[in-house]
Amino acid sequence: MAKKKTSKSTKSKKLSEAQIAVHWKEEDIVHPSPQFVAQANMTDPGIYDRFSLDNFPECFKEYADLLDWYEYWHTMLDTSDAPCWKWFVGGKINASYNCVDRHLPKYKNKAAIHFVPEPEEEPPAAISYQELYVRVNEFAALLRDFAGLKKGDRVTLHMPMTPELPVTMLACARLGVIHSEVFGGFSGQACADRIVDSGSNVLITMDGYYRGGNMIDHKVNADIAFEHAKKQGQKVDKVLIWQRYTGQYQSESKPVKGRDYIVNDVLKDYVGQRIDPVKLPAEDPLFLMYTSGTTGKPKGCQHSIGGYLAYVAGTSKYIQDIHPEDVYWCMADIGWITGHSYIVYGPLALAASSVIYEGVPVYPDPGRPWRIAERLDVNIFHTAPTTVRMLRKAGPDEPKKYNYHFKHMTTVGEPIEPEVWRWYHKEVGKGEAIIVDTWWQTETGGFLCSTMPALQPMKPGSTGPALPGIHPVIFDEDRNELGAGAGKAGNICIRNPWPGAFQTIWGDRERYVDTYYAKYCKDPKSKDWRDWPYLTGDGALLAEDGYYRILGRIDDVINVAGHRLGTKELESSALTVGDIAEAAVVPVVDELKGRVPDIYVSLKPGVKDGKAVQAKVVKAIESEIGKIARPKNVYVVPDMPKTRSGKIMRRVLAAISNTLDIGDVMTLANPDIVEEIRVLVQGKEKVAIKKGPEDIERFGDEG
Ligand code: WT7
Asked: Exposed e or buried b for every residue in 353-365, given b needs 16+ CB within 10 A?
């Protein structure tokens, strides 16, 4: 637990160099209000002792006991296949049962989901636990008997933010079918890659949905996904299409006979059916969630049923402070891990009412989220810094106009700037709500660091101490530990396994071991978890008071609006444009999204029309990955700055894009090109050099 220390004493200390380098001044701490503490789920500081390393791994029984088990496990943690950890071995469980059926005796008449359509004239729709039970059962019957899906099969979902998405996930979970939801904003091609990698024969999609005031034709992406998957040798047999409005088909693309089926038509045959939840081994996979890495294709993070569900239930209860009577709104997309863990599985495991908003936060105006909060009487709110920045910019005084009251708010996905934190606290939280800054990853299933809301004070811009049962360590390159107050940043790792951690990368154990464990593993043959610290890939430093400050990714991954995009993926989609010889992607600071990609391209000999190429690059990226990856700028350069061995110096390009100090370039093979590119990007006049955020200053560094 964080040692009590006033910020004054830390403030008066001379800043170390590393602290200056990360522009970190200690912020004043903010205490949770007594009203919050009075109602919180966890007010016992003893929890940190109960979850100490001495009590590991047995401590996690406390989380597992939040769930209903068909059979209790015999082995808490099995390390025999290190570092593929198995939790609750011998246990039998079903996630759909835990999120739906078991709540019926007490809560069948309570809203499980509040669906808020984007068009404001369409009223919110509440789906009770009983209604969710019916829909999940009927769709599970369809999946089993019409689509022929069974335990262990993978199915790809490419669905927007409507209740049909959790219904589909829970129906899969009921059968032991492994779902792999692809963010609805991703392109058909990105969806195809995930269909191929997971080996899905069934694709579940929706005809259309609202975004920014328009009905988006989404089914067209299924056609693209089908074709691209087929080209890569993966045949999709059935495409199941939900309808945004039952009976009214929204897409230009007509269903293909013998392949495409309108779910609402087929469902008529399954009305009233009930499917017994399959009693599954705790360590069976529940779902795959793809995420970007440094090289190559996206990684399918495989999450387990028992460990994952126990971890998201426990952290939803204590860190999100969800009680059954709360109205909880996480404004993430279910297509990301945040939505899986903290819109669907965590809250529903606790019988909460979870809000699903279909559209854009600022549609039709920046007062929209606060009107939703007022109307549904939301009291727990969860979003990302990028959205907070957007709402603050578009409507700084909007929250005041509405009569809602949050007790609790979350920020997630990237570091939040202290000024933005303070606006969130004062204006959105009306000075009443506590804030948790939750640091975690797709791979980790649930939160790793955050303040315990009723126990610990908040420090704007810092995630806080580690969660109970999570034991981080910061290593430098030589495996020296950088302790509290070291004043230096290093690679933050987690010493111990925890139940929410992913089990492996789907179909690529070697990559799993290499990426996350090889760097600091003491002995690759060891079966002892102590020898296998988990490498998060983030840089961080630990303050004297035990609060972690996360600096961002240390690999070539760009965090756009709180989500990881691989630079290599972006570069290879730019290279699909035939006129391009080379492409290099670098992150550039963006006021709203945090970081966005800038792309530098050089053309093949003889290609003249740079403007046309720029447009083609943008199009290629949008269609291969999705609009989220759209570059801020595409610069056509005569050549790339290169080392003598021919490596593109991305560090130099990042410095130019962000007007940072370019440093010494005389060792390059072509030093003159640097000034030429600088003029192209910044103009002839020299502009004042800034000091950039740590992740940008460091971007492209070797070693
Ligand atoms: C990366 C993970 C966590 C679910 C959504 C994103 C960054 C995440 C924080 C935070 C500073 C954060 C890290 C991490 N990150 N939360 N509270 N403070 N940085 O999941 O796409 O897997 O990205 O997001 O760099 O490694 P993801």
From this structure: bbbbbbbebbbee
